[in-house]
Amino acid sequence: MKQVISMDIGGTNMRIALVDELYRINKVMRFTTIVGDKTAFLNQVASIIGALQVNMDDVSAISIGVPGRVDDEGFITTLPNIKIKEIPLASFLTKKYQKPVFVKNDAAVAALAEANLGVGKHFKRTYFITISTGIGGALVVNHQLQYSNDEIGHTLFPYKNGYYELEQIASGTGIINLCALNNLPVQASSLFFSLVNSGNIQAQAIFNDWLDLMSAFLNLVQHQFEPDIIAIAGGVMKSKDIFLEKLTTRVKGGNLRPAEFGDDAGLMGATSLAFQFLSVNNKTPQGVTS
């Protein structure tokens, strides 16, 4: 049975797994992402693959989702939340492991997982959004990736007397900034949602501001892409019981659903990408090196 090494690299953590063609995760590990040092980042990814301790003869490919822009050759031009640029990750790993290496934007691969295997599998148009350290999005139509944008979280939105990139004030880390702008010190978005849930008046006022920001963004997505379903994943979704129903009522015509794979969406998406081209098309897609 074919197996791939699947990686989901985020601005805070990276996860690696060995996944077979039945999409069973046979082994998974998590590490804190090294930030701000390109060489250390490349070496970390390589060492993590080694730490998985698998026989590479049993591995068909390495497939990776990254939180940034990937060109047609699989070269990463920028990883804003990891604070590095011009990263030859695909060629670096190909040379080291002599295996096909698939590299694509993390929201794009997660969108493929949810559209093909998860909550969007019975819908024609699925828009996937991840709200974690940053915010990313991708559209899948008829189970094929049509559009992905690693910059969508950098869309400017007005707040108070200024303009802010959406992920600066609405992502998992952005919520901390949003609270700071309102003189409420919190160390994590989960703590903020706990304050909201406990009835803290100041936190609830900021929560309404956050709902306004997110609903403005989601209404924009709904208008521009006309999805049948919007699948939402990322660390913030751990608090979905507090906000998802309220957010849904503010999105006109929106069908908001938690991503079926949750934290595993990135791993499943990278796996789906690899098997799609190894097992079906037997060719290399854009954004992939082999």
Description:
- The chain folds into 2 domains: 3-105 and 264-289, Nucleotidyltransferase, domain 5 (2-Layer Sandwich), CATH 3.30.420; 119-259, 2-Layer Sandwich (Nucleotidyltransferase, domain 5).
- The protein has 9 helices and 16 strands.
- It has a 6-stranded mixed β-sheet, sandwiched between helices.
- The chain is of the alpha/beta class.
- A hairpin with a 2-residue loop joins strand 12 (156-159) and strand 13.
- Helix content is 38%, strand content 28%.
- It has helices at 38-51, 89-97, 106-116, 166-170, 172-181, 189-198, 201-225, 240-249, 265-281; strands at 3-9, 13-20, 25-32, 61-66, 69-70, 76-79, 84-87, 101-105, 125-131, 135-141, 144-149, 156-159, 162-165, 229-233, 256-258, 288-289.
Instruction: Categorize the overall geometry.
Output: globular
CATH superfamily of the largest domain: ATPase, nucleotide binding domain
Could you name the CATH class of the largest domain?
Alpha Beta
Strand order of the largest sheet: 3-2-1-4-8-16
Query: Strand portion, in percent?
Result: 25-35%
CATH architecture of the largest domain: 2-Layer Sandwich
Number of domains: 2
Helix fraction bin: 25-40%
* Rounded Rg: 19 Å
State the total count of DSSP E strands.
16
CATH topology of the largest domain: Nucleotidyltransferase, domain 5
- What kind of sheet is the major sheet? 6 strands, mixed
- SSE string, helix = H, strand = E? EEEHEEEEHEHEEEEEHHHHEHEHE
